Amino acid sequence: QVQLVESGGGLVQAGGSLRLSCAASGRTFSSYAMAWFRQAPGKEREFVAAITWSGSYTYYTNSVKGRFTISRDNAKNTLYLEVTSLKPEDTALYYCAAVAEAGPNPRPLYWGQGTQVAVSS
Predict the structure, then answer these.
(1) Separation in Å, CA 67 to CA 29, 77, 100, 110
(2) Mean pLDDT in runs of 10 for the chain (121 residues)?
(3) Rounded to whole angstroms, how far apart are CA atoms 73 and 3?
């Protein structure tokens, strides 16, 4: 089992940036593909980005391409999401997850508790 704890969320103005982190403990972090999801108020949770266990390949939902960057540091057991050029519609609770495979529709295995991102216009 993998335990995941997100951090780095906050309130920012439109156009601003944040760096979300997801610290992992438990079973070997580097053996899992990882992903970020988000859930806006009143909406279903949606896929944001995924990365392979090695970090060699990344996948993004269309609405964040060119603005968000997923990365990982296996030596530090940490997953990151750099979010830039933020828009009010990016406001959501952001979750990291260990997933069965990286791709545009990954199957989550383990979830973190989420970190809130709020973007003001």
Answers:
(1) 26, 24, 25, 26
(2) 95 98 89 97 97 97 98 96 98 98 94 98 93
(3) 16
